[in-house]
Amino acid sequence: MTASGLAALPLLELTVVLPLAGLLLALPLGHHGARATLALAPIILLVTALLCIEIMWSGAPIERVAGGWDVPLGIALRADGISGAFLLTTALVACAVAVFQAQGGQDGGATRRSTFWPLFLATWGALNAVFVSGDLFNLYVALELLTLAAVAMVAYGSTEAAMRYLLFALSGSLVFLLGVALIYAGSGTFDIGLLGSAGAGDTAMTVAAAFMTAGLLAKAALFPFHAWLPPAHGNAPTPASALLSALVVKAPFFILVRIWFDIGPETSGVLMQLLGYLGVAAILYGSLLAMRQERLKLVIAYSTVAQLGYLFLVFPLAGAAQDLPWTAGTWSGAIFHALSHALAKAALFLAAGIVIEAVGHDRLQGLAGLARDLPMTVFAFGIAAVSIMGLPPSGAFIGKYLMLTGALAGGHVFLAIVMIGGGLLAAAYLFRPLRLMLLAGETQPAKAIARRRQVVPLLLALAAVGLGIAASLPYALLQIGRSLTATEGIE
Amino acid sequence: MSTALVYALCGASLVGVGLYGFITRAHLLRRILAFNIIGSGIFLLLGGAGSRQGAVSPDPVPQAVIITGIVVALSLTALAVALLVRLVEDTGRATLPGEDASRDA
Amino acid sequence: MNPALLFDVALAALAVVAALSAVAGRDLFASVAFYIVYGILIALAWMRLGAVDVALAEAAIGAGLTGVLLIGAWSQLHRKGATETPPGPSSAARLLAAGASASVAVLVAVIFVGLPADGAGLAPAVRENVAESGVSNPVTAVLLNFRAYDTLMETIVLAVALAAVWSLTRDELWGGIPGLRQHARDGGVLATFGRLLPPLGLLVGVYLVWAGSSMPGGAFQAATVLAAVWLLLVMSGAMDEPAIGSTAIRLTIVAGPALFLAYGTGGAFLGTFLGFPADVAGMLIVAIEYVLTVSIAATLALLVAGVPRRQE
Q1: Any keyword Membrane (chain B) (predicted)?
Q2: Pairing of β A76-79 and β A62-65
Q3: pTM for the complete prediction?
């Protein structure tokens, strides 16, 4: 197929349309939705991969306007390199989760069997809609679609955790919407591209952007808005935990990157510093609490609180002075970190899910010696842990390396120390469950888990490492349509 | 002072009122009310922006997105209410306990 | 100050007072009642702003359906003794919260007032293109054509909200019927209502969709009227809620969004995602709106009915 052949297909639209069509199909199908999802998931993965190829091939973002109405009247859909990278990572994780769950995961009862698949596909569709949207109000609608599906999936595990999550998510969306309303009041458009080309803007725009940012922080669970995350991710059913921790919390981060790097309101250095320090607090606090948890899924959930902190270091490192030569590398590093974390975190939660299915609980003290009976799962956990710690050759290592280079070049020694320290802390909290499972002990799995399911987290963990080994391709993808002008990185 | 400005300022006040309710009230049904009040306050602000002086007729784009927003708000309210009823059935409480996450395990 | 502006100021003040009563009152049922009054005042405010479509949506959905939903929630909580308001925070904490909330309100107001007042927004762009949109009501043109993508997502949001509510069903009741069976006395007011309403409601619904292309109205407002008829029929005992296990009911829920999505995707293969050719746009939009109306009406009614509480 040639480049023009690819361009003739509406790949960009299909990445959003297909999961949404799937959910409309799965809703009436009830528990037969599993089969429909399994048939559809590889098609969505293929379409997403083709879209990435099209973006690479053309070397420029793919842009469409829905209904053929030009902005600002219409709504723009735009897939640049970072969209492609997030879409593809989402497709990989979602396919893995679908295969894992459809092949006989613990189904819960009749209700979960009949409602899980529409909610799963709604999550996928909403994430994709966020990644290609060029319009602030459209982003609001996509975010709320995501909230509905994600909260409902948490409620399978704990109504209380779901309610807490809903309160945070709703306050977040409303504060975001307040910012969007002020933007429209001031500029007469919701279009990100037009807002970006309109120039730096004034104080009002910065305040509006600050409102949007505050709302998105609540949804991204950045410290101190993290309280909802561990109970929600720690008590949701396995496939939901994987989707939520790997992907759902990245959607608000993605929008923050769009706001501060693509629209680029008159950057307030203080605000960027603040985001960075909250990131630092998240790394330290999340890691320390992860060390103190007695349940495997809570260790992994608190690890998400910590790892999300790294992403926000991009704002003080690359947000305040975008014209420095190393900022593009730092920016790419943060995105690498987000993608790598998505793959590794999904692997950890699926591995934990296998442990829970096998022994019936996830209390750390009762997992000693599990490696003897579940070697592949414990191995997958270990590989994913290497990635979370940011050791070479994982994708997270590339991410941390790029960010560290930027931090040192920019004189942010404190942030550099925190990044290195955070890696050591991650090693500490992940080594604890790993050591227990590898230790001689007498834990006997009550139930055998099929190898074809155990292999799923292993493949995800290997993908997280592979992201580091074959880094140049995703790195090149990320650079397409990047709004930062400076070029220096690992080319 | 114009009609549009009056209602935009009303919208800003409603955001404040809703926020106050959300912070101070623990009963979850009241918090759901507070969310809806904040939401309609934001919509008034947006609507006020769409019909300021100089405009021949009110801007239809904010009107359309507000209608979308009202439907989205209803969807979220429906889920919140159903979740609240289920929470009361499960725990007997219509409030959330303190914020210590690790205790939820 | 001219009398009209005086009215505006009074209405705005009343809305704020109603909102305060809803959030700060002691009695939970009174709060719900105040919220419904508040919704009606806000609908009036939209009339004053010349946004009749929004006023209709706010009255029907914001005050009406949300009100029914909240009253339903209150009565279920009341039955379980969970309507007692827990003691609030100390007066110092309340004062602090009031200060913080007021500061946010003032900040928002100051920013808003400071914005350039010349912004006509997108009104001129809509005026220029409305002739090509197939409908003459500019709000409908934005909803179903210029920003059809938002509206498509919104119809999917409704369907997903219903799936989310249903996901809270207890396993033994999966596929069952939402709500409690209502019995009406023969010859009672509700029973008479039950006979008269369906034809009337249908007529109003059909009219609102048709009118929506040139006047205020449209699929969402029409669907709310139909959903209200549905709810009244159930309350009067003339009809029971359907079982959510019914394939017919689930197909009804997804038919509208699915048709809209399929139409949009077909357009994407032909060149324009969600594109409406100007010469047939009006016909296509009304056709899609009728199917949407049926799906949205069923979805709204079932959203208000909530999770299944009994088996067939």
Answers
A1: yes
A2: antiparallel
A3: 0.96
